[in-house]
Amino acid sequence: MISNILQYEFLQNAFLTGIIIGIIAPLIGVFIVVRRLSLIADALSHVTLAGIAASLLLEKKFLLFSGLNPMYMGMVFSVTGSLFIEKLRTVYKHYQELAIPIILSGGIGLGAIFISLADGFNTDLFSYLFGSVSAVSRLDLWTILVISILVIVLIILLYKELFLLSFDEEHAKASGIAAKSVHFIFIIMVALVIAASMRIVGILLVSSLMTLPVAASIRIAKGFKQTIFYSVLFGETSVLGGLMLSYHLDLAPGGTIVIIAVFILILTILLKKMAVKTSLASHQK
Amino acid sequence: MEKQNKPIIEIKNVSYRYEKEDVLENINLTIQEGVFLGIVGPNGSGKSTLLKLVLGLLKLQKGEIQLFGQDIYRFKDWHHIGFVSQKANSFNTGFPATVYEVVSSGLTKKLGLFKFMKKEDHHKVTKAIESVDLLAFKDKNIGELSGGQQQRVFIARALVSDPKLMILDEPTVGVDAQNVQSFYGMLDKLNKQLGISLLLVTHDIGAISDKITHVACLNKHLHFHGKTEEFEELKKNDMSAIYGHDIQILTHDHEHHYHHHGGTV
Questions:
Q1: For an engineered disulfide with A133, which of A14, A201, B216, B225 has Cβ 3.0 to 4.6 Å away?
Q2: Across the interface, which of B91, B97, B114 has its CB nearest the CB of A157?
Q3: Which pLDDT score, from 0 to 100, does residue A237 have?
Q4: How many other C-beta atoms can be found within 10 angstroms of the C-beta atom of residue B51?
Q5: Which domain holds residue B206?
Q6: Would B1 be classed as within a structural domain?
């Protein structure tokens, strides 16, 4: 396997991209989960799908667009979708979660129309849905790298503000922090990470790479920084394990990655249960 | 120990109404540095409205408020004022953050954007946790603590930015009765040892009457403001002198709490 990676550029692209998104998806996922916004990731990934479908359609109908990387259009849609969600959340002040199904169904609707206009599915679209090892180009890798560096730097710089906003939004506002701007930057980062991650895991499974490692981490971590650390560790394990398995067994990488993440989650729940039991038992002695 | 020369809050002729109802009428109240003031009054007496006005969360309709000698609209040093709300029930107790991390978040505004905590900031955080007697719990997740301990974490979060005045809105809601006394004892320590002025809103004066230095009785009007001993004296003689015609609703409420807790103190 290692020699293959050294030999084939497409495998290098896939593994390097995998390593990167194994870091950023769970990293931003921690903030998404603790702020109870997990479904936003789902909504935005479906909007990203609409963008990709639109790009594939344009590519098919107009020669002019043939060189355009569908990921870019996906990003544009994803970021636009995130702005719509924010707008809708202020329109429906008392039903803020309503913004999510509205954007999610809007995304699927648009995606379906674009797909049918492009005369149906093709293998390219399938790889966007479930992820692909062979589809990542060098250009994809560079784009994803740039986005990831941007996201990581922003999270480090805004860590205090993001933490306070996540833990206690009311207090954040009362203490005079630019809560709105920080939230705005956050939601755009989410949109970008989704668009960057979908090449490997696929649109339908992006949100699970953002939430499953975090769900496992919360069970065992002490504190927020440790939660981030374990989330990234679990995310990275799932991605690398998933990619290797899927390459050897010729499976869709997205599915393999997510199933490994599910296994890690189950394992942590069981371990935690056992730890609680043994500590109870030792207390009784 | 008493430094009763500088007023930190001056409330002058303040009235406030929500739509059709007057909540506060012509309130005049000057709060001196170093006091531990308990503001008491029944539900709907305008206590929270007064707090929100002082914190700048509501806009003044009538009258004026000065904080540390400055008009509230020109006041910039908000980090001098720490606020602890009825928090214990309202945050996500499953949040994966340690006591240390939560207390550190009290420095967010003071440090400013793109700034990181330095050595002395970490020292401040430790000191704040120490002054609420939670040092042994600093690496525990906040969800593992009891309601009273969680409330102390929020006090430490307010303490960490070196406030001169701390405003607490019914801080013992959600704290079990056994721990209420030690909670108030800790506030007393902050007031006496660190010299932080405290303004505490409560409807439960009995539990705290031996700690506070001053009392203000509010029910739309300010019915009484003075030293705690004077208040106790007045109360013994004649409740109606404090509240006037509002006596019927209020005596019951106060007497009840007073006797209830009076027995245990």
A1: A14
A2: B114
A3: 97
A4: 20
A5: 7-262
A6: no
A130: confidence class by pLDDT, cuts 50, 70, 90 = confident
* pLDDT > 70 fraction of chain A, expressed in percent and rounded: 97
CA torsion sign for B218, B220, B224, B226 is positive
Within an 8 Å CB–CB cutoff, is residue A276 touching chain B?
A: no
DSSP per residue, B166-199: EEEESTTTTS-HHHHHHHHHHHHHHHHHS--EEE
Output the pTM of the full model: 0.84
Name the phi and psi angles at A62, rounded to 5. Answer: -125, 125
Using the 8-state DSSP alphabet, how is residue B8 labeled? E
Provide the 3-class DSSP secondary structure of residue A40: helix
Contacts of B91 in chain A (CB under 8 A): 167-168
CA separation for the pair B255, B213 (Å, rounded): 20
Rounded CA separation B176/B11 (Å): 34
- Fold for A2-277, please state it: ABC transporter involved in vitamin B12 uptake, BtuC (1.10.3470)
Q: Nearest CA of chain A to the CA of B235: how many Å?
A: 37
- Rounded to whole angstroms, the Cα distance separating A264 from A212 reads 9
Q: Which chain B residues are within 8 Å of A224, Cβ to Cβ? A: 96-98, 101
Dihedrals phi, psi of B26, to nearest 5 degrees: 50, 60
Residue B2 lies in a domain: no
- Separation between Cα atoms, residue B155 and residue B238, nearest integer Å: 36
| Run of H or E including B27 | strand B21-32
The residues, ordered by sequence, that sit 6+ positions from B138 with a Cβ below 8 Å of its Cβ are B98, B99, B100, B126, B129
Minimal C-alpha gap between A182 and chain B (Å) = 10
